[in-house]
Amino acid sequence: MTRSVTVLTNPTAGGGRAVHASRRAVTRLRERELDVSTVEGRTAGDALELLKRAVGRGADAVVAVGGDGVVNLALQVIAGTDTPLGLIPAGTGNDLARTLGVPLDDPTRAADLVVDGVVTSIDLGRVGTRWFGTVLSSGFDSLVTERAGRLQWLAGPLRYNAAMILQLAALRTLSYTIELDDAELHLDAVLVAVGNGSSYGGGMAICPTARVDDGLFAITVVRDVSRTRLLALSPTLYRGAHVDLPEVEVYSARNVTVRCDDMVAYADGERIAELPVTIECVPRALRVFVGADSPLRT
Fold it and tell me: Lowest mean pLDDT: which of 20-24, 35-39, 114-118?
């Protein structure tokens, strides 16, 4: 039974929405007679240390308020433990929350799941000692994210949109080697995504066949395409229909190594490492509160 929770908030998530969502969630949790402590931190490193101390003192659960980035931070502390994770979505992506059936626009209802909800276990991806919950990607989208980080003079979605246009102008084919459980692939591609969950970027189903409870990754490869064709593929991502196109290949594996010169990998929207990376799917690595409509609910 959950009696005490630590609430971890990213105050910058969602353009500041997370602060308001956190207040509503904390109020609700206290109304439901839970003992609530809060963690914010001046930096991600500071928040990580504060969360480690809070969990070490014996919190029954951790509640992450924000987007997939703050969830990723929480994973680094509680993955592989018995401490369950609750989500209060308040970021721009919220892809793990979507997967778990957590209400995206109602912090009070999301907080109620921590009191009344069902706890189940899901898989996580791991690169070395670094955990992730949704999708690890490299290629075009990781280069867009890298470029957006350099456009500090632009704000909000405008920064990402400008980065995408600039990166499209510089689109190039990348030479990948991908090692799967029982195969090694050598191919030219513009994007490789390794999905524990099916979506990233706020509902783009880049790996639509991925499930967070099957012990496997779904790997999506977008082969060599032109700028025009890549733009045409974009609308199909939200439906997952891109996997039916001839330029897209899908694989599955529990262990994946991705190699490509001068390339970086992002997961849960966070910079993970320069390639090559070896990625392991760790079954049942995280306990989570799930919503009433989640297919994971048992």
Answer: 114-118
